[in-house]
Design goal:
Layout (H helix, E strand, L loop, with lengths): L1 E7 L2 H17 L4 E7 L10 H6 L7 E2 L7 H19 L3 E5 L3 H12 L4 E4 L11 H10 L4 E4 L2 H9 L16 E4 L3 H16 L2 H4 L7 E5 L3 H5 L1 H18 L2 E5 L2 H10 L2 H9 L3 E4 L4 H10 L2 E4 L2 H9 L4 E3 L7 H5 L3 E3 L4 H12 L15 H13 L1
Parallel strand pairs: 1-2, 1-4, 2-3, 4-5, 5-6, 6-7, 8-9, 8-11, 9-10, 11-12, 12-13
Helix pairs in contact: 1-7, 1-17, 3-4, 4-5, 7-13, 10-12, 10-16
This protein binds uridine-diphosphate-N-acetylglucosamine.
Uridine-diphosphate-N-acetylglucosamine binds next to helix 1, helix 5 and helix 11.
Length: about 375
């Protein structure tokens, strides 16, 4: 029996962890014990609790309740808490997801006391170290023992950074093992797709018609904190909604909600508030997001996860960032990177909304990435 400590903190990690917890419960409960640590990075009920309930994830064994703060304050509080738990629980490995401050804290805490790190969603790169997430994932990858990349391009990034793809067991932080295994988020989308519409009412509640609305999310710090960019994004959404007679559904991350009034010009703010097409809501649950993704015409987002979910449900996507780590979406032509540039956003909308010749090949595995990861962890740590 191996014991893993799973660290989660931000909304997408809670969702990603559901895939592994499900695989352990269904297929590996005699071989893996999981202890879940929630750092408390996300603490509002609709950013955290709702996902545990909806996705049937076991409640965390520990909650560090770190809350918001500067990067240093938030990460430091997590580090102290995670180290204490690692020393007490003595796990076979710590399992970390993605690229948030919770990921970084777990990677530092474990590697300093020589605990093996398993990184799920390894190898992704945006090539912009101005993004806190890029720094977090590079640091985590380079202290990990097992690295699971969701994409071939992520796997190749690791090879380029010096990871040996022929490494032989026993594996450790100096002799790590890299895998291309598919995406646990794809596992989840397949698992929950069929129940999304029957278990949620968001489509009828917001009076939405299939293919008659844009699903938009905006939460990256450079978009929310820089008024010029936030204004450009909302002007674009407003103009597109009016020109094409489409609704815009915008489930707002608390970060964005707090900054709308302060960072939008009065004119832009009033336009958005006065535009009946805008349906600004609280953050959506995972099942609600899936229902929105399945029914919308097109997605506009600066989120990493939502870009891919658009693809899983065969919707075109406008990426409101200067770059993306999910490069295959752009390569196959279903997504366009526009940054917060009004002209580019409008041109991309014009092109993608026609929906001509869009193809959605299987890029993210077979829906069994979590089972694969469990099997390799057992091989390595037993
Ligand atoms: C974090 C991750 C990001 C991920 C995102 C998903 C980092 C560096 N970033 O960004 O990669 O895509 O989560 O959602 O870890 N807030 C609340 N209530 C909450 C959570 C946040 O009000 O429950 C507000 C606070 O004002 C906080 C701000 O949102 O200061 C930002 O939260 P933080 O956790 O620092 O980063 P995210 O923007 O959520």
């Amino acid at each position: 029996m191996i014991k893993i400590i799973t660290v989660i903190g931000a909304r997408p990690q809670i969702i990603k962890a559901a895939a592994l917890s499900r695989a352990i419960k269904n297929n590996f409960s005699d071989k893996i014990t999981e202890v879940i640590v929630h750092t408390g990075q996300h603490y509002d009920a609709n950013m955290s609790e709702v996902f545990f309930e909806e996705l049937n994830i076991p409640k965390p064994n520990y909650n560090l309740n770190v809350g918001s703060g500067s990067h240093a304050k938030q990460t430091a509080a997590m580090l102290i808490g995670i180290e204490e738990i690692l020393l007490k629980e003595k796990p076979s490995a710590i399992v970390l997801y993605g690229d948030t401050n919770s990921t970084l804290a777990g990677a530092i805490a474990a590697s300093k006391i020589h605990g093996p790190v398993v990184h799920i969603e390894a190898g992704l790169r945006s090539r912009s170290k101005a993004m806190p997430e890029e720094v977090n994932r590079i640091m985590c990858d380079h202290v990990s023992t097992l690295l699971f990349s969701p994409t071939i391009s992520g796997f190749n990034n690791l090879v380029k950074e010096g990871f040996n793809k022929e490494a032989k067991a026993p594996f450790n932080a100096d002799n790590p093992k890299i895998f291309h295994c598919g995406d646990v988020m794809y596992d989840n989308s397949l698992q929950f797709s069929s129940m999304a519409e029957s278990k949620t009412t968001i489509i009828s509640k917001l009076k939405l018609e299939k293919d008659k609305f844009i699903l938009a999310t905006i939460h990256r710090n450079n978009n929310t904190d820089e008024p010029e960019r936030l204004n450009a994004l909302f002007r674009s959404l407003n103009d597109i909604a009016l020109k094409y007679n489409l609704d815009v559904v915008l489930p707002l991350h608390p970060r964005t909600a707090k900054l709308l009034e302060t960072n939008l010009t009065k004119e832009n703010y009033n336009n958005v508030k006065g535009n009946a097409h805008f349906k600004i809501t609280e953050p959506a649950s995972f099942l609600e997001m899936i229902a929105l993704e399945k029914n919308c015409k097109l997605v506009m987002t600066d989120s990493g996860g939502v870009q891919k979910e658009a693809f899983y449900f065969e919707k075109p996507c406008i990426i409101l960032r200067p770059e993306t780590e999910w490069v295959e979406l752009v390569e196959c032509g279903t997504a366009i990177v526009t940054d917060a540039n009004e002209e580019k956003i409008k041109a991309a909308f014009e092109k993608l909304s026609k929906g001509v010749n869009l193809k959605f090949p299987k890029l993210y595995g077979d829906g069994k990435a979590a089972e694969f990861i469990c099997g390799e962890m057992i091989n390595c740590f037993t």
